[in-house]
Design brief:
By secondary structure, the protein is of the alpha/beta class. It has two domains: about 120 residues, Rossmann fold (3-Layer(aba) Sandwich); about 30 residues, no CATH class. It is built from five helices and five strands, in the order E-H-E-H-H-E-E-H-E-H. It has a five-stranded parallel sheet with strand order 3-2-1-4-5, with helices on both faces.
């Protein structure tokens, strides 16, 4: 039997929404009655080389979230440890395999602050047609599209 949490968290930049993001969101809505979505600030995404505004990313995310019939809230975060380290009402965090270690660090920080650790729910990376993970950076480089179709020949 699958556990259902009152509130779960998921976070990201969501600069280019792709199948990997959809899988994370689907899992969060599957296991949580209420989902907190941490959306990174403009300053954070600029450091990562993107220039899509918070408002535009939020708008794009909300279009996708219409398909889910559960409560959610999108909050602005300035980095991976913002909000979640001190949140009292969140029970679990949904992460990809790639960000699992970050969730472990979050729980370490929570413990240091006397907070209950979060259950960590790991979602497998969604692979592109060439067997490598789908990511916004690969899409931005023109290697693949949001569905994982290969657009450029990869020598490596």
């Amino acid at each position: 039997m699958r556990k259902c949490y009152k509130k779960v968290a998921v976070a990201g930049s969501f600069t280019i929404i792709h199948l990997g993001h959809l899988k994370l969101l689907e899992k969060a809505f599957e296991v949580g009655n209420n989902v907190i979505i941490g959306l990174t600030s403009d300053e954070y995404v600029k450091r990562k080389g993107y220039d899509v505004s918070f408002d535009k990313r939020k708008e794009n995310l909300e279009k996708i979230l219409k398909r889910y019939n559960k409560k959610y809230e999108i909050i602005r975060i300035n980095g991976p440890f913002d909000y979640i380290v001190d949140a009292d009402d969140v029970e679990a965090i949904v992460v990809s395999e790639e960000t699992y270690e970050r969730a472990v660090e979050i729980n370490k920080l929570r413990k240091e602050r006397g907070k209950k650790p979060l259950d960590i729910i790991v979602v497998k990376m969604v692979l592109a047609k060439n067997g490598k993970p789908i990511s916004s950076s690969r899409i931005k480089k023109g290697e693949i599209d949001v569905y994982g179709n290969v657009l450029k020949y990869d020598k490596g």
